[in-house]
Amino acid sequence: TAALIWNELIREKITNFIMNQSKEERILNFVLQNAVQGDPCSVMDTIDKYCAQKEWAMNVGNEKGLILDKIVQEVNPSVALELGTYCGYSAVRTARLLKPGARLLTVEFNPVFAAIAKQIIEFAGIQDKVKLLEGPSDEIIPQLKKKYEVDTLDFVFLDHWKDRYAPDTILLQECNLLRKGTVLLADNVIVPGAPEFLKYIRNNPRFQCTNYPSHLEYMKVEDALEKAVFLG
């Protein structure tokens, strides 16, 4: 917690003031200057390098990213949803594994983050597989069926506000967006933590849960991903 407070609240604000730009803008510039355009893996590696060596950022990261990769490949989704785009790292990571014709809808509340993510997604060359939806998740989820022609979702990655994990999971069910076999994967269930979400899905007979211990992105702090398969 102390490390997060130092990185997110103190160091970042000082650097923003000195450089007159946000951390997210610095990540974008580093990608544009150092990554290979049209190469998703190069974009991911460049972001990982920046966040490990220069400034910490809340991407899923390279260690937990391998767990995300494994589950995306197992599910092989036709329609995937990501809640929390941030700078587009996990959208790039997920989209590069999608089969032809598959699509990822990624939702970002912060317009500044959305604008940066859009540029990173386009630079990585995976914009044909990704649709970025800007706005609050609780407003966008009910629009998915009619406005975005989603029947049901095969895979959902939760990586936005942790207190939205449980209500948005309930909302996905209420909107009939989950089918038997839909896989939900939630990041940061230990740090910062999503206790209400874990309590909800682990005590719900409609979900089968698996925990994947790991570490907080770019740190040695213990964290985990939680996988929940919807049983219908």
Automatic annotation (TrEMBL):
Where along the chain is S-adenosyl-L-methionine bound?
60, 90, 108, 159
In Gene Ontology terms, what is one molecular function of this protein?
Answer: catechol O-methyltransferase activity
Q: Which residues bind substrate?
A: 162, 188, 217
Which is one Gene Ontology cellular component term of this protein?
A: dendrite
Q: Top-level EC class, please?
A: transferase
Amino acids binding Mg(2+):
159, 187-188
What GO biological process, any one, is recorded here?
developmental process
Q: What is this protein called?
A: catechol O-methyltransferase
